[in-house]
Structures are given as C-alpha cells and as structure tokens.
Amino acid sequence: MTWADSMAPLRERNFRFYFASRSVNLLGTMMATVALAFAVLEITDDPAALGQVLAAHTVPMVALLLWGGVIADRFPRETVLQFSNLTSALSQGAIAVLVITGSAQLWMLIVLSAVHGTVSALSFPAMASIMPQLVPRDQLQPANALVSLVRGALTIIGPTIGALLVVTVGAGWAVAVDAATWLASAILLGFVHVPRRTTPDEKPGTFAELAAGWSYVRRTTWLWAVVLGFGFLNAIHAGAWFTLGPAVAKQTFGAQGWGVVLSAEAIGLLLTTLVLLRVPLQRPLLYGMAGIACLGVPIFVLGAHPNLWWLVPAAFVAGVGTEVFGMGWNLAMQEHVPDEMLSRAYSYDALGSFVAIPVGQLAFGPLAAAYGFRDVLMVSGVVYVLVCGLVLCSREVRRLPRVVATDRETASEQG
After folding, report:
1. Residue 372 reports pLDDT greater than 60
2. The CATH number of the domain covering residues in 3-194
3. Residue 58's CB: how many other CB atoms inside 10 A?
4. pLDDT in the model for residue 1
5. 392/409 Cα distance (integer angstroms)
6. Cα dihedral sign, 84-48-45-245
7. Where are the alpha helices (DSSP H) in 101-253?
8. Could you give the CA distance from residue 221 to residue 226 in angstroms, rounded to a whole number?
9. Is 0.85 topped by the overall pTM?
10. How many beta carbons lie within 10 A of that of residue 402, not counting itself?
C-alpha cells in the first residue's frame, strides 16, 4: 500500500467532510474533559460532585445504547449524527452560559450532562457504523487509520489546549468552545450525502429489532466471542491499570512517572496508526487479539517490578497492540456485518464493554486491600493474557479474513 493509497479516502467527498467533522468533534471532546471538571469545581469543592456529573452522562448512555443502535439502523446515520451533535451543542452551550454568568447549580449540570449522555447513546452506534457508507471497502483500513491518527494526536494535545483555555479565559468559556465544536461538526456533516438504504415498507417494532440484533450477535461466533472476552478484559484493564496503577505510581516512581508511562502508550498508538496506513491487516482478529494481549504485560510489570525502565517500553508495546486490535475490530465489523445490522452489532459490543468498566473500578480496590497490590496486579496481567488466548481458541476468530470488494460500485452498494 503506497502513501497515495493511504490518502485515497480523502478523495471521497463524503469521507472528506465526515473526517473534518470528526476531527473538530474530537478536539472539542478532548478539551471538554478538562473544561467540565473545572466548571464543576467552580460550583463546589466537593470531589464527589464531579463524579455525579460524569455518572449523569454515563448512565443514560449505557442504558440507551441498544436503542441507539436500532435508531442508527433505521434512519440515515448522518442525520442521526447531525441531530446528536446539535443537541450536544445546545447542552454544552447551556452549561457554558450557566457557568459564565455564575448562575450554575450542581443539579443543572447533572441534568444537562444526562441530556448529553442520552444523545451520545444515539451517536455512538451511528458513528461506528457509517464508515462503510463513506468509502469503498478496499479503502476501509486507511480511512479508519486516518481517523485514528487524528484521535491519537488530539488525545495528546487536546487536554493541554483545554487546560490553557481554563487558565486564560475560564472554565465556562472553555466549555463554550466545546459547544462550538459540536455545532461546527454538525454543519460539516450537512455536506455528507450517502445513498439511502432500502428499508421494508412495514418496519418491525423497536423490541423486534433489538431481538433481531441479539439473534445476529448470538449466532455470529467471532462477534460474541470477542465481546464476551472484552467483558473480562475491560474489567481487568479498568480496575488493575487505571484504578490501582496511579496508587502504585504514587508509592513508587511518582505521578510524573505515571504520566510518562501513559504518554509512552499514546506514542505506541500513534506510531502504529502510521504503520497501518501502509501495511494491510490480513487477519484482523487474529492479529488484533494477539495485539491486545500485550496490555497484560505492563499490568504484570506494574505489580512485579514497578520501575520506569520496564514499564515505559511495556506501555509502548501495549499501545501498539491496542491500535492493532482497534483497527482489526473495525475492519471485522465493517466488512463482515451486514449494513442493516451494523449499528445494532456495535451497540451490543459497546454495551458489553461499558458495563464491565465500573465493575473493575469498584472491585479492584477491595481486592488489592485484601490480597495486596503486587499479587492482584501480577495475577491480573496473567489472566488478561489467558483471556485473550481463550478468545483465540475460536477458529472463527483466528481465521476471519478480510473482505475486499472487486470494484468501487459493488463496494458502494454494499456500504
């Protein structure tokens, strides 16, 4: 694959505007993480308040994900995304106005965050499943890589820009900038026009469509095997790495060292994206599951020998593996799942992933208190790799191939 091939998706008008929309949206999202935290702290010094605001976003998003998948499969996905972005612009803009004018109260931010979480449940399945409608199938890998490249870069610089805005103009204005990015993203999506999918005259009810989605997931072995595996993997990663990790860092190599470790992981992600712009991934789930198994290594090292000389390279390799899996999973879903089922498949995948995260966050603290940080982390690292191995025991996972369209017209019709 040449560099010209890697940039080919940008020659597609629909992808070009989607890519611009997504880039602006990602910038705002990365800044908002910092901006919203300090906006809440302007109201109250209670650290539990921020948790309440964040939970108000997360709970409705998780609860409504499956319905979001149904909606994204039933209506034009670019329209669903536009509606979601416009509503997000209004909710974030309202938060900004309340904070800037000094009239914000905690309950107001909780309600507005819940609105934002609700529309996020609509946008996530649509955003994940729209790619095959934007580019020919033989361009899916570079298209996904380009989006991942921007996401990786903005993950590094976005929070810094957000913090700079908070310091210079205040948290309220920083949230206002985030609201503006949602609006700009919606406007750019207005230039995306994809062919309408054929739908039956009499559409089944919502619960019937949910049942059809579940039936598809259940009979697609490679799909449910990976989702089930990640139910355990995400619980381990959230609990061992993100919950126990900072505590171990504070007692050993310090908070600054922990930042270096996370940066090494981000660099691994970013560099691998550049590689995947050129190198085709022929066995998406075989390489993907082997790659994600690398996350078990820094978890084990964090318990066995929490030293930066070991952790930084381990985290870098974990970042490489994470990006390989992310690419492999998107290719598997976008190439093998029928378009009319894709949003629902992504919503079931997301539900299985998101539900596991708070389980790990809540469970690993008591586990470490009972059995010690060292033993819990070392066992977690080993179990993480073993779960990946169990998923790879599935022949369907190991042998899932790429699907390449023979011509652009066929690919466009399938998408």
Report:
1. yes
2. 1.20.1250.20
3. 17
4. 63
5. 34
6. negative
7. 106-129, 140-168, 171-189, 206-219, 221-236, 245-251
8. 9
9. no
10. 18
| Fold agreement (3-194, 209-404) | yes
Cβ neighbour number for residue 254 with a 10 Å cutoff? 12
- Segments in 220-372 forming alpha helices (H): 221-236, 245-251, 254-276, 284-292, 296-304, 308-336, 339-371
Q: How many CA atoms lie within 13 A of 77 on its CB side?
A: 28
Amino acid letter, 316:
F
Let me know how long the chain is. 415
Question: Which pLDDT value is given to residue 413?
Answer: 42
Q: Write b or e for each residue in 47-56: b if 16 or more Cβ atoms lie within 10 A of its Cβ, otherwise e.
A: eebbebbbeb
User: Is the distance from CB of 94 to CB of 313 less than 8 angstroms?
Assistant: no
- Residue 109 to residue 95: CA distance in whole angstroms: 6
pLDDT in tens, 260-308: 888 888 899 999 999 998 898 989 999 999 999 999 999 999 999 999 9
Q: What is the arithmetic mean of pLDDT over 385-396?
A: 97
CA atoms within 13 A on the CB side of 19: 21
Nearest C-alpha neighbor of 321 from the set 243, 406, 373, 384: 384
Backbone phi, then psi, for 201, in 5-degree steps? -60, -40
- The CATH topology of domain 209-404 is Growth Hormone; Chain: A; (1.20.1250)
**What is d(CA 269, CA 253) in angstroms, rounded to the nearest whole number?**
23
- Measure the CA–CA gap between 318 and 103, rounded to whole angstroms: 44
CA distance 376 to 372: 6
Highest mean pLDDT of the ranges 38-42, 53-57, 70-74: 70-74
372: left (phi > 0), else alpha (psi -120 to 50), else beta?
A: left
**What gap in Å lies between CA 44 and CA 33, rounded to an integer?**
17
* Domain edges within the chain: 3-194, 209-404
To the nearest 10°, the Cα dihedral for 249, 252, 255, 257? -90
Please count the other Cβ atoms lying within 10 Å of the Cβ belonging to residue 306.
20
pLDDT greater than 90 at residue 57: no
8 Å CB contact between 134 and 15: yes
Query: Is-contact 397 387, C-beta < 8 A?
Result: no
Evaluate whether 15 touches 143 at the Cβ level (below 8 Å).
yes
Of 81, 124, 130, which is closest to residue 333 (Cα–Cα)?
A: 130
Q: Does residue 48 have a pLDDT over 70? A: no
Place of tokens 């310090």: 254
Start-to-end CA span in the chain (Å): 22
